[in-house]
User: What shape does this take?
Amino acid sequence: MTPTEFEALVAQAAVARRPIPPGLLPRLAQIVGREHVLTGRADLLVYARDSWPIAALRVLHGKSLPLASAVVLPGDTTQVAAVMRALYQVEVPIIPFGGGSGVLGGTLPLGGGVIVDMKRLDQVLEINDRGLTVTAQAGILGVDLETGLNRAGFTLGHFPQSIDVATLGGFIATRSAGQFSTKYGNIEDILLAIEAVLPNGEVIRTKRTARASTGPDIKSLFIGSEGTLGLLTEATLRIHPRPERRATQAYEVETFLDGLEIIRLVMRTGLRPAVIRLYDPIESAHSFRERVTQSKSLLLFISEGRSRLVDLELETIGEVLTSFPHRELGPEPGRHWLENRNVVSGLPEFMSQGLVVDTLEVAATWDLVPGLYLAMTERMAAVKGVVSVSAHSSHSYTQGTNLYLTFLTLGPDDPTAEALYQQVWTAAMEACLGAGGTICHHHGIGLQRVKFMPAEHGPALDILRRLRKALDPKGLMNPGKLFSQEAAPGSDEASGPREVD
Amino acid sequence: MPNKAAKRFDLATQIRICALCPNMCRFLCPVATVEKAETITPRGKATLTLAAESGDIPFTAGTAAVFYRCAQCKICREWCPSGVDLPEATASLRRRAAREGVAPKAARTLAARLVGERSFYRPAAELAETDRYRSLLDKRAKVLYFAGCATAALHPEIIEATLRLFEAGGVKVAMLRPEECCGLPLDVLGYADEASEFAGGLAQAVAGGGYETIVTGCPMCAQVMKEGYPGGVTLGVEVKHVTEFLDGLGQEAGLVGLRGRHPPTDLAVTYHDPCYLGRYQGVYEAPRRLLAEVAGLEVVEMERGRELAACCGGAPAIDATVPATATAMASRRVAQAGRTGAGTLVTACPRCLEMLRAAAEASVGAGSGDRGLFVRDITEVLAERLGVWRER
Assistant: This one.
């Protein structure tokens, strides 16, 4: 049997499986307590994946996934450091785990090893009213952090669709974006300081400050590091007083490209509505049904903050719209979106019924966005077996926007489903790179995007490789993820010179 | 945003959907919230359900134990846009565990004790103290008051408070002697046949007394008596939880006449929805109406109440197999109640009462700021406010 695409990805990651030495489990139990070391087959099976569709399909079909040797759940930074030291010393791979909501295979224990689940570090440590900051442990769920802040009259303003599932550490490690990012920023704008445990067990803390000119930004190295440089244990973030008012306004516009142009002009005007979302005709019809005319696109704005500013912002957006044919749809579509924005049941429902659905997100500057949209949708739709390709834009900037592509292919019961899935992805990524886009806006790289990293970064990728090698000389942190060219730890290649892919 | 969608998929498809979902309800699962491990989350359990059914993992005691770490509280079902009823799948795997002899030891022991003693707590014979309430009972009554073994064993004062409320409302009631366990805990632990056997005995006693209505203060008893037992045994009479029954009396003037008997108060209470009363039976408003309109109290809502109220930890399988988790669940709920600023936490279930009261008392000891939170059963609060009963 020829290897499946999944097996090819695993092979390409070149992570050799490493057994755990005797004495390690008792040592871990000593550090975190026996009840927080899981080695049962049931536990290992559940921890074998995140929310990557390929891994889910394999579970559905009883196909194997690499299993870790154990899962540990440390309870504080000291325990995390002790666990790291214990694992690093005996050269066992370390796979950090938050909420398991990543959609790219970023937590799969390719070389076995030990998964470190951070969710017992779940406390809000300080809400600083004057400094407008919150400090929390990295394993707290996004929803619990936001609820805690709301209770005290604040908001983080960071609302990824996975807020109910993902952890704060996961937000940072994957370089996440929230639905209200146009106003509040993405995680890199929100994060002020971190505490992290390096692979050797050393604990580092960066300073909480409004801004600093003290050399390259150390905390930034960990944003998007996907567990390859260390384990995040704590973070300090900007917070905001809860907005006085939230208002929504939706429009129907003639075409998706018209909508993109309107967003560009709105952003150029200097406005910062919390949310700007534009859906192509397929997604407009799917998500907003009878609210929008068939073959038209829905454009949604949400503004929040001081009441007078909200009015002014929406009024100014209305002025930009006057140059384009449009129909006002009022506040209701926005309320509908707010109610349903985190409902993702369509994906598992489709998959359980015999279809594969996935989304991928890219970004580009405004000059390239229309070409990017046309190239990607055309190339993805041309893959045989693709039933539908649709798009929306959900995070906009003065310089550009993201595009969120959704595709639907034939069934998971089809033995070629995995190969077809990869064909669509490859078509999408190649079209994106060809059109000058960046291959990922906010989901991260995980395992699924690894092979496109050399083309994305070019020779500069080697800087990340060198950084990783400096902090993790044994190559034990989440091996095989983020970028390839990790020879199997301990193999001959591991210490020798390497080529760039 | 609780889900109101009707179930659209058969159970096997539901489990596949759950295993494929990114675990969107995990933040509400009261057990996963405490235990943290992925294994215990809804998606974890769905993944294992698939693996157990396909034979990918052996159905050992270790695997079976995961399915006992579910409160059967149905909060995941409530939230799920696809209407996935994971607790239903969990229940069927518990039956398998019981059948195959791999249920956790604590569950086996508890089930054996239930069968032997006919009560969740103390032998049923010891609980047959209805003589104490002789003057409040009427053997010919058409209404049967079924106290439930948790109430009889742990909170007998609730029985008297409830009987005084019936008396005040002009309702004549009888009680069974002895009153045995309703059988639900056995079913919950996976012992369906044993539960049906209990049901048979109860059905006989009910038929023999010629009762038309059963009123119980225990939401678990009410659930199984309303919905029927595994094996299809039904009691064939109207069944009401005491809050539904008293609310009915209130509407029909029974207790309304007593309103105003109580002194005015600015006392605020918060109300904890028992899982079996709320999500299972949809009874949310009756207890709130009784507290506000009959008892004249201000009801302050918790952050998550009604459909999204978290389980108190009193679920029999949780309490029996992972007691520390049960205690932590209760503490979390008490902390939520404490944040409302209300001085009293009222509930309508003897199991919830037990768990929450213990957690409130422990939190006073731990100095967690929940000091002074009284935990009371709704019948006690009502009877006291109406001046028909006083705690001794």
About this structure: The mean pLDDT of chain B is 90.
